[in-house]
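job 3f2a | input accepted
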Amino acid sequence: MDLPYTPDPRPYVPPAAPTDPHVLALPAELPAQLGYDAVGTPREHGERILRCLPRVGCVFADDERWWWIVPSGSHIGVIWPAGVHYAVGARVDAAGTDTTCPLEPSWTRTRPSPRPGGPRPDGPRLIHRPDDGSPYTPPIPLYFLTCRLTGNPPLWSLERAG
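job 3f2a | predicted structure (162 res):
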């Protein structure tokens, strides 16, 4: 016997904005109901990715990387190509590198090349926000595009990474 659907009587309360200075903070009007992570691509690929994707969510950038907001868990079952960083919980430091433990060798941090003036002390800033109510960039098109731009074949497994 199937039980009838009963809606939750409690009103939806969006999660509080992150207070950790290393977490990329989304605009308050764009709730991330699925949680969120960030995919960091080299700066030189940013404009091309922005033009090629059918839909783009929130994007943050600094001098080194563009960070694309994706739903939590978008790293499970895929191996992001070398040069692309996956930051669980969208935790990046002021230099724009992920602060999470690497889940695959391709996600290990690399030292940014020294630039005159050094990295931005305030970290990545929001450079693109979507027109609709979702902060997410679809991770599968982003994954295939990053593979193509880096010259790596797409790789995935049925086992959980890490």
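job 3f2a | Strands lie at 36-42, 59-61, 65-71, 85-87, 125-128.
job 3f2a | closed
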